[in-house]
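TASK: fixed-backbone design
INPUT:
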């Protein structure tokens, strides 16, 4: 068989989804976060506020996570057609989201430990300076969240919610985590300054750590399932089985459906029947399930 005839039956393994707007917005947020990080660390050093220095380094970890997110976008784009990757680089963005979620969880752990320590060894707080910088940090995070939310909403509208950019979602969670800690800090500092409730500062740190951990846990569960090739959608699998078995005496003896990229599934299906037809027939039969980008069908005659 001529090579061009073989190539006609081959298909692309580019299952990536390069979200241009998400990548651009993530770069913008990275720059804003890095600048705010420098301001908080410098201000904390000048005013002798450990709270501001700690929050500055907290933002530094998020800036590093945003850098990882941008790397995932670029790697996916550059290697989208690299045949060394069996199913393309669709999972790179998922891996980026997983790593970012772990980073958020680590930040939350250190926040909780530091907050518990401050219950027993309180640190003098320069309330005026701390409140002022915390408000600036909150405004920066609100702007960053709006940038990423706008990109995420545009992304869903363009793709009918079938593609889920875990990179973009992870970046959005990082910004929400920062916004939450800034808001809790303002609340605690306000009551500490005017009502002498200094213990609210470490308490809000613990509450923030719990909420952030819950967010990161949800993202870890979702992304790890994809990375481990877990059957992602039982309904799709059930619909495929019902469609095939609705004709003749077909029986699906084995079926595997897993995710290979944002909005892309791969499937391996084994069919047993007394009246076997070509593999292309069965592929056409379930062609309505457009999320399946890579399909392998095995047909066995029932003796």
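OUTPUT:
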């Amino acid at each position: 068989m001529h090579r061009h005839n073989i190539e006609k039956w081959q298909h692309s393994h580019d299952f990536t989804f390069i979200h241009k707007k998400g990548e651009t917005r993530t770069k913008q947020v990275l720059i804003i976060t890095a600048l705010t990080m420098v301001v908080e660390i410098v201000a904390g050093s000048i005013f002798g506020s450990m709270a501001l220095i700690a929050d500055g380094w907290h933002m530094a970890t998020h800036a590093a996570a945003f850098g990882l997110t941008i790397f995932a976008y670029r790697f996916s784009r550059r290697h989208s057609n690299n045949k060394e990757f069996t199913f393309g680089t669709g999972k790179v963005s998922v891996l980026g989201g997983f790593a970012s979620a772990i980073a958020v969880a680590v930040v939350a752990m250190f926040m909780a430990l530091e907050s518990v320590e401050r219950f027993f060894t309180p640190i003098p707080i320069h309330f005026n300076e701390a409140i002022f910088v915390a408000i600036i940090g909150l405004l920066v995070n609100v702007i960053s969240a709006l940038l990423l939310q706008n990109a995420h909403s545009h992304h869903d509208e363009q793709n009918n919610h079938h593609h889920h950019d875990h990179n973009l979602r992870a970046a959005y969670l990082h910004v929400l985590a920062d916004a939450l800690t800034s808001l809790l800090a303002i609340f605690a500092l306000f009551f500490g300054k005017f009502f002498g409730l200094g213990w609210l500062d470490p308490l809000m740190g613990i509450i923030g750590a719990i909420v952030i951990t819950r967010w990161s846990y949800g993202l870890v569960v979702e992304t790890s399932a994809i990375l481990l090739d877990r059957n992602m959608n039982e309904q799709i699998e059930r619909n495929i089985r019902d469609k095939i078995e609705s004709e003749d005496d077909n029986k699906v003896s084995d079926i595997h459906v897993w995710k290979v990229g944002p909005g892309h599934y791969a499937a391996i299906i084994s069919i047993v029947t007394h009246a076997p037809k070509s593999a292309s027939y069965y592929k056409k039969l379930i062609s309505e399930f457009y999320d399946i980008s890579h399909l392998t069908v095995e047909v066995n005659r029932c003796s």
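COMMENT: The longest strand covers residues 251-261.
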